[in-house]
Specification:
By secondary structure, the chain is α+β, with helices and mostly antiparallel strands. It has helices at about 5-20, 20-40, 45-60, 65-75, 105-120, 150-155, 180-190, 210-225; strands at about 1-5, 85-90, 95-105, 125, 135-140, 160-165, 170-175, 195-205, 205-210, 230-235, 235-240. It has 8 helices and 11 strands.
């Protein structure tokens, strides 16, 4: 089935990531630390930790930084005790936004998130106000030019839930969270390297913004993503232009 083109959004996010490498390392260190604390330091038996370590490798983070974060998470080193917290809210024209944070100070974090929402035309919502509009799943994006038949066969055989064709010829593959690591391995073994491979909160339906609304919405999303305690920002908006 066809869907909105997501390639402009993917390219924007990757460019933004590349532009703030140091900040990405900080976020990954938090994620590795918390993943190790919650599921142990063994990558083979901790899928969340494995994904975080793979992201760290993609971001060219030194291995000693990764190991130090794992050791801190499993209690071998002192450091900040981060906790996960999610905030929900509304953007331009009532667009749904989820903001996933890791913080050692909830009071500071909620104040900063609320300020970003209000400064850029959005507002905070209560817990559960928009989360029901998203599903927790594994998500892969494959570039235009990928063989649809071959990808679909490999993905569905390996346990994918859906393969969605993009207007520009790219593909989105979705799976249940527990199946993510195995599906990623199977797809790579079949010769399919994803542009993006993540566990995300995916909106059930999407709305497209263009013109001034798109500019305003992007400013709000950027402001939230630039906060130190924010790990990920999800919305149900596709921004055109």
């Amino acid at each position: 089935m066809a869907g909105h083109s997501k390639w402009a959004n993917i390219k924007h996010k990757k460019a933004a990531t590349d532009a703030k490498r140091g900040k990405i390392w900080t976020r990954l260190i938090k994620e590795i630390t918390v993943a190790a604390r919650m599921g142990g330091g063994d990558i083979a038996s901790n899928p969340r930790l494995r994904l975080a370590v793979e992201k760290a490798a993609d971001a060219n983070m030194p291995k000693e930084n990764v190991q130090r974060a794992i050791t801190r998470g499993t209690g071998g080193l002192d450091g900040a005790n981060y906790e996960e917290v999610r905030y929900e809210g509304y953007g331009i024209n009532g667009a749904a936004i989820l903001v996933d944070c890791m913080t050692d100070n909830r009071v500071r974090t909620v104040a900063e998130v609320r300020h970003a929402f209000s400064k850029f035309g959005g507002n905070m919502g209560s817990e559960g106000s928009v989360a029901f509009m998203f599903q927790h799943c594994g998500q892969f994006f494959f570039a235009p030019g990928t063989s649809e038949d071959a990808l679909m066969e490999a993905a569905l055989e390996a346990g994918a839930q859906d393969v969605i064709a993009d207007e520009e010829g790219g593909f989105e593959v979705l799976c249940a969270v527990p199946d993510f690591a195995q599906l990623k391995d199977s797809l790579q073994a079949a010769g399919f390297k994803p542009e993006v491979a993540e566990i995300v909160m995916k909106p059930n339906t999407e709305i497209t913004f263009s013109g001034d609304d798109a500019i305003k919405m992007q400013k709000l999303l950027d402001a939230l993503e630039n906060l130190d305690d924010v790990q990920e920002v999800y919305s149900n908006v596709i921004i055109e232009g």
